[in-house]
Amino acid sequence: MVADPASAELNFVASPEGQRYVVDMRPLCQGMPFVLTDAAHPRLVLKHGSHFLVLDESANIPACNTLGYGYYRYDTRHISQWELYLNGDVPLSLLSSSVEPGYAGSFIYTNPASGDLPQQKITINREVVLTEQLWERLAIESFHNQDLDCTLVIKFQSDFADMFEVRGLNRPARGERMVPLAGSDGSRLFLAYRGLDGVLLETEIEFIGMKPHSINEGEVTFHLHLPVRQAVRFELCVKTRMDGQPLGTSDDSTGYHHARHAADLRYSEWRHHGSLITTEHELFDLAIKRGFRDIYIMRQPTPKGWGLAAGVPWYCAIFGRDSAITAWQLLPVMPGLARECIEVLAAYQGKRKDTFRAERPGKILHELRLGELARTHIIPHTPYYGTVDATPLWLILFAQYIHWSGDLDFARQLWPHVRAAIAFLDRTADGGFLTYQRESPQGLENQGWKDSGDSVMHTDGSLAHPPIAICEAQAYLYASRLKIAEIAELLGHGSLAGRLRAEAAQLRDLFAKHFWMEDENFPALALDGDGRPVRVISSNPGHCLWTGILDQDKADAVADRLLYRDMHSGWGIRTLSSQAVAFNPISYHNGSVWPHDNGIIAEGMVKIGRTHDAHKLLHGLFEVCEHQRDFRLPELFCGFERHEASRPIDYPVSCSPQAWAAGSIFQILTACMNLQPDACRQQLRIVNPLLPDWLGTVTIRGLRVGQASLDLCFSTRSGASFCQILRKEGNIKVIVEA
């Protein structure tokens, strides 16, 4: 039904495949407010490639929700309501957390007491898998002593909201949503929307194995006859299209069973290309398994190649910083992931000056979005380049990948991109520090990893004004110059290598002069636009430890300070000291605990000889895993003292899964192995490895250094770790130094 059928009929849209849509004039959720009652609302998440599903605890998508539930593809919510009713009642959820693979899940319900239907006599079993399409298999079974008749209703709607709308952006105008349309064969439902750019988006839901009794404006009704213990089964398939073209690559699945088998096989093949890590700690192995699965589902295609999405649901897009850090975390055990990220970020490298997008030649992107708001340039994320650290991090990842792979042909192929990135950094730093300030009116005020607007403040709480030189960006710049100098020498660019090393030495001296606070024995968080140190105690200087920009005595002082009680909550290192005026344990960047932040700090502690302190951080994160559903580390959690609660306190809108959170366990574990590859010289050095004794024996199989492959076993006794080479294939020299 539409508000004015006569006038609405004049506003039809014909789809490329022949559907005749009518524009729906009615607000979708008028008079149906959704009230947030649980700040840390649980979510069930499934993801594969470009699409993902966010469900509530009952595995439904409630109508008119403001919590991000929905079925999404390329920054657009293609289904905003997906709810089941049995004889008019909401079924009772029995199992709604079986999402182990990450791309598939199963959910079981029973019926409540209602009318003539006996209580808890019917089960509904839903199995969902995401391949290039979404497949669901339903089985409804009666356990009553006689046949039953019932009605199953599934309600579908879509607001086709852009992810920025879902996150709270109020846009001045929207496109045209269509009245839900039943297919001519009675077995399909179409939801559609024509955007402000004229693009027609469609969601097709096809019912297979059982034809609905009726489809009425998104309400799909089945009248079921349930014989005793004889399940009634049918499937549905969700497809998405843009201007008639399928979103995603082709999918030849012929049903749920085939789709699930293909999905499992695809994951198995991907894991075959990485290393296998096992320990004697069964629960830790579960965390490792979960981490690999989360990294797999966070892989995401773009028009220019595969990259890594940052986090579900809010940041399910390619981010330069997040991609580079996550690929770095996984590099020893999944080098192919690093190559993907290097290539896709190079493909989107800045080519010209564009203030709206903060683009510059040679600059690595911050964030790429593909939804309607990006297509119509209402937001600058096409891509948006407002980041101070993605470019040096990309250079670091590139250099480290060459050390692991020995692929100098790849290095030569990417070298023009490397030179462009170096030139950008030279222009930006101009012989001094790397700074940032907002250019685009819709850009970010802060452009380090702590990119919320209030994350850089003075001790009195006042915000620092730009241009801002954040401390870790200088450390990344320093490390990138040294690491690219190594690759430059391998490629015969000796003069460039010498220049980069000289610039790095100059930067190191400047950093010591301007950032080190003698009275605090700690680096400043940043320098503001007047060159004044931002003197709060934060976790950012911990990112400097692994780069070598600090002298040993200063690095030790930083490590000591980060472990003080005002910085270490008992679960991990906070982003900001609890003694700071701006501290808030529920703040996104001013007091919370981030696993990836701790992972980078832990690697730095290993580099300066403080491996036992890295063990403390690893153990804290693992204990957080033990308190999480499916042993999954969240993006962040609250920075309350450990003694204040029996478990880590969830941050209200944390992403989960989140790429660099999943990678943090791998980063600390492999850092403790202290693997130093030199694939170009066919060598692997293992220097003073030291793993936590509570892990027992740790084995890594299929470790690749260039074309060689190794199986290594680490055992720890009496505070010392021993490395045994179990298998070696290919030309590789392994040097173990104690």
Q: Which features would summarize this protein structure in a list?
A:
738 residues, alpha+beta, 10-stranded antiparallel sheet, 4-stranded antiparallel sheet
Provide a quick synopsis of the model.
With 738 residues, the protein is α+β, with helices and mostly antiparallel strands.
User: What distance separates the N and C termini?
Assistant: 77 Å
Largest sheet: 10 strands, antiparallel
What's the shape?
Answer: globular
The fraction of residues assigned to DSSP E strands is: 25-35%
How many strands appear in the DSSP assignment?
36
Fraction of residues in helices? 25-40%
Mean pLDDT: 93
Note the total helix count: 15
Give the class from helix and strand content and strand pairing.
Answer: alpha+beta
Low-confidence stretches: 1-9, 31-39
Radius of gyration: 27 Å
Structure, described:
The protein has 15 helices and 36 strands. It has 738 residues and is of the alpha+beta class. The strands form 9 sheets. Strands 8, 9, 10, 11, 13, 14, 15, 16, 19 and 20 form a 10-stranded antiparallel β-sheet that branches. The longest helix is centred in the middle third of the chain and has 22 residues, at 408-429. The N and C termini lie far apart (77 Å). Mean pLDDT is 93; it is low at 1-9 and 31-39.
Topology:
Layout: H1 5-8, E1 12-14, E2 20-22, E3 44-48, E4 51-55, E5 70-73, E6 76-79, E7 81-86, E8 92-98, E9 104-110, E10 122-130, E11 134-142, E12 148-157, H2 163-166, E13 176-177, E14 181-182, E15 188-194, E16 200-208, E17 214-216, E18 219-226, E19 232-242, E20 245-246, H3 256-272, E21 276-278, H4 282-298, E22 299-302, E23 305-311, E24 315-319, H5 320-330, H6 335-347, E25 367-368, H7 372-375, H8 390-405, H9 408-429, E26 469-470, H10 471-490, H11 494-514, E27 516-517, E28 522-523, E29 526-527, E30 533-534, H12 552-562, H13 595-607, H14 611-626, H15 659-673, E31 675-678, E32 683-687, E33 698-705, E34 708-717, E35 720-729, E36 733-737
Parallel strand pairs: 32-36
Antiparallel strand pairs: 1-2, 3-4, 4-5, 5-6, 7-12, 8-9, 9-10, 10-11, 11-19, 12-18, 13-15, 14-15, 15-16, 16-19, 17-18, 19-20, 21-33, 22-23, 23-24, 24-25, 26-29, 27-28, 29-30, 31-32, 33-34, 34-35
Helix pairs in contact: 4-15, 5-6, 5-8, 5-15, 6-8, 8-9, 8-10, 9-10, 10-11, 13-14, 13-15, 14-15
